[in-house]
Please model this.
Amino acid sequence: MTSAPGRLLRDSLSRLSNYRNLMYLLLFSAVIRFVWLDKPRNTLIFDEYYYVNAARVILGVPQSSSGGKIPYPNAVPGIDPNPEHPPLAKLIVAFSIWLLGDNPYGWRLPSIIFGTLTVLFFYLIVENFNDRKLATLATLMLSLENLIFVHGRLATLDISSLAFMLLSFHLYLSGKALLSGLSLALATLCKETGLYGLLVLVGYECFKSLKREQLKRLKLGLKKSRNLEITILSYGLFLLVILFALDVFYGSFNNPLDHLSYICSYASQLTRPEGPVGIESYPWQWLLNEVQISYLKVDVNIIVDGRVLGSRTTIEFMGAMNPFIIFSTIPAMAYMLNDWRRGRSGFSSFILSWFTFTYLPYYPLAILLHRIMYIFYFLPTVPCVCAATAYTLSEGAPRSVVAGFLIAVIVGFASLFPFKQIP
Model:
């Protein structure tokens, strides 16, 4: 007879064995984010200039300059100088700097953690609807997606917001509505686009209801709707209460409604009626991977006998999607739409809602309001593209096709990998 501790150990090892592929993917995701994290040495990359310096102001330490200018010349120490975005992500970076020092590891460790957690939560979401094989395939694609990778190692707001959003989705699908609302509030407190996550959950219930035909499914839908009500109410409550607390200590607003009003007012002014210029883009261009952004580029001269013969790029961080993943968006979503119309799975309802409410809102914003936008706004949509593509491939595609696609994805990831040589 096996002892109780023996059975417990055996069961634990069995569960770990079931998630072996996930652990490999998490290890891979963490390592590629951490490697050469301090390169180029002591250099802020892209919007880190704003958010790391905002964290420095909160801590009361000197800002770094670019072109002889600092981003917040009139900032009050201890107060978030970047109120056009919610404060949570910047406070997390500030805590990391306080803990590890004002260096690249202090700036970027939170993003490594959130980037790796994004991979974990995404796996759990896909597994909730499907088997581990499909979850592994989709998560492998996400791990090899450049935009997710780059923002998962830079001190920007997007990856922390995405991680909390995915956690909220997982909690909601697991029936934990109250915690789902809390996590979604934290996503919004990192970056205001976390609100789209709430629309995804509302849309999910709507997509399911449109295909509901049997009484049993109707009762299940009503139960889920009660979960949705709890999620919405808890989201609003946690958002206001936590934002109020953060503003009391680190903000300059008397109440959270004033702060939210300021965020909306500021965003409404980011318009360009004549159309995008420079690195700005239209949302439909993102599906073609157009108007990519060079976040940072380091070139070195090729010198022979004292003469400069040319230059080569040694480091380049690109704001761009893995081409083989982004170009699969339209056929994969078309397949999901057909799957939903045939009423085959709740997975298609969730993915279609995810795509609809994290991406399509940018169309009226661009067409009617002329909102300024950038390619990295597609970041919250990238995971659902990976999920839809993996699902499409799993529905009868020959193994050779799946293998060929994965090889192409690996090539796409390698071509965009920021380090062109070992630093």
User: Anything to note?
Assistant: The chain has a mean pLDDT of 92. Strands lie at 293-304, 307-319.
